[in-house]
Amino acid sequence: MLTPNHVVTAAKAVLFVGAGTAVTLMLGPYQGLEQAFGLSDKAAHALAFGGLTAVSFLAFPRMRRNDLAVAAILLGASIEVAQFFAHRSASVTDLAADAVGVAVVYLASHIEAVRRDARERGAMDFADISAQKNRRRRRRGNVVMPAAESAEAESARGGFAARATARFPRGA
Description:
The chain is 74% helix and 0% strand. By secondary structure, the chain is mainly α.
């Protein structure tokens, strides 16, 4: 039976092979190969990095999309630096094309969140939506609170901090 974990595992394999292929094609003696497929160099960069970004979103569902997008752009920058040292044509415009491919996938990945917000909170502005989401995260304990605030919250719930404070009061 197919599960989401199977998809994640397959995506990690595809990402590993895809990243290796991209690095090999961009650093090896394959300059101009994209023209055989009717693509310009910039379009090939944008497609490659957009594809790698999309697959990385599937491969690492617990990682933030921002972090994965930055990692993809850093990979592109690393390849351009490596091309410079491999006596190939390192180009800032290739890096920009990489970033465009990443940005297209990154922005597209937010479409469903905007659709949900439009359905559920269509009359609210984005600042109010963000504040509401932050309050909900704090309530669930997903946001790191300052030490004094978290000790108070823990105390209110009767947790470890409350028991420790009762046994060992401050200043005693």
